[in-house]
Design a protein that fits this description.
MetI-like fold
Length: 277
C-alpha cells in the first residue's frame, strides 16, 4: 500500500501530484536552475571575485541586516496590531483593518516616492527629525523604514486568524487559576501564536530581501553606504553583465534559502513542542 496516498475529497492523487510538480517546476525550479546554469559560465575564481568585492559585501550586509531588523520590528508591532484588531472593538475598526492591506495594493514605486516625500529634509516628518540629528531619507535608516512599511501586512495577516481561533475562555480559566496577565500571555497565548508569528516573520523577511521599488527612491543608492544588492543586480543587467548578475542572484538565493530553512526548523520545533506539552 502506498503510504504517501491519503484520502481526499479530490480524486486522482497521481494526477494531482503530477500537476503540482509540473507547476512548481515551471514557476520555481526551472527559473532558479537557469540562474545557476548561467552562473556556471564563470570559473570559480571569477565567481568569487564578483561576489566578494567590498561594494558587493557592503550591499549584502545592508540588505540582509535591514531586512532582518525590519522583520523583527514587524513581528513585534504586527502582533500588537493583530491583537488590537481581534480583541478590541472601536469606531473605525474596519478602516484600520483595511489600511493594513494598503502596502499589498500600493505599487512599490509609489510607496518609495511617498516615503521619500515624508522623510526628506523638507518633508512633513523629515523637517522635524533633521534638527534632532536624525536623517532618514537617503540613508540606511530610510531603507529600514521602507522595508518595515512593506512587511507589516505579512505578520498581521498571518497572526490574525490564529489569534481569532484562540478562545477567550482560556484566558479566563488561567485568571481563575491565579495567573496574572503576563503569565497568561507567555504561557497560554504566546506558545499558540509563536508558529504563526514565525511564519509572518519569515514572509516579511523574505519580502524585504527582494524589495526594490520602494527602496531605491528613499535609499539614495550610494555605494558602500545605502546600496542594496537587488540594485547591484539591476546595474549589472543594464551593463549586459548577465553572468555577474546571476552570480549575485545565486548568492542571494542560497543565503535566503538557508535563513528561511532555519526559520522553518524553528517553526517545526515550536509546533512539536506545543503538541508534546
Amino acid at each position: 500500500m502506498n503510504t504517501f496516498k491519503q484520502h481526499s475529497i479530490l480524486p486522482g492523487f497521481n494526477l494531482a501530484l503530477g500537476f503540482t510538480l509540473l507547476y512548481l517546476s515551471l514557476i520555481v525550479l526551472i527559473p532558479l536552475s537557469a540562474a545557476f546554469i548561467r552562473t556556471a559560465e564563470l570559473t570559480w575564481p571569477e565567481f568569487w571575485s564578483v561576489v566578494t568585492t567590498p561594494r558587493v559585501v557592503a550591499s549584502y550586509r545592508l540588505t540582509f541586516g535591514a531586512s532582518f531588523a525590519a522583520a523583527v520590528v514587524n513581528a513585534v508591532f504586527g502582533l500588537l496590531v493583530a491583537w488590537v484588531l481581534v480583541r478590541y472593538h472601536f469606531p473605525g475598526k474596519k478602516i484600520v483593518d483595511a489600511l493594513v492591506d494598503l502596502p499589498f495594493a500600493l505599487p512599490t514605486a509609489v510607496a518609495g516616492i511617498a516615503l521619500t516625500a515624508l522623510y526628506a529634509g523638507n518633508g512633513w516628518i523629515g523637517q522635524h527629525l533633521e534638527p534632532l540629528g536624525i536623517k532618514v531619507a537617503f540613508t540606511p535608516l530610510g531603507i529600514f523604514v521602507a522595508l518595515t512599511f512593506i512587511g507589516l501586512p505579512f505578520v498581521v495577516r498571518t497572526v490574525q486568524p490564529v489569534l481569532e481561533d484562540i478562545e477567550s475562555e482560556l484566558e479566563e480559566a488561567a485568571a481563575t487559576l491565579g495567573a496574572n496577565r503576563w503569565q497568561t500571555f507567555t504561557r497560554i497565548i504566546f506558545p499558540a501564536l509563536f508558529p504563526a508569528l514565525m511564519t509572518g516573520f519569515a514572509l516579511a523577511f523574505a519580502r524585504a530581501i527582494g524589495e526594490y521599488g520602494s527602496v531605491i527612491f528613499i535609499a539614495g543608492n550610494m555605494p558602500m553606504i545605502s546600496e542594496i544588492t537587488p540594485l547591484l543586480i539591476i546595474t549589472k543587467l543594464e551593463q549586459y553583465d548577465y553572468a555577474g548578475a546571476t552570480a549575485l542572484s545565486v548568492v542571494m538565493l542560497v543565503i535566503s534559502f538557508i535563513l528561511l530553512l532555519i526559520i522553518n526548523l524553528l517553526q517545526w520545533w515550536s509546533r512539536r513542542r506545543s503538541i508534546e506539552s
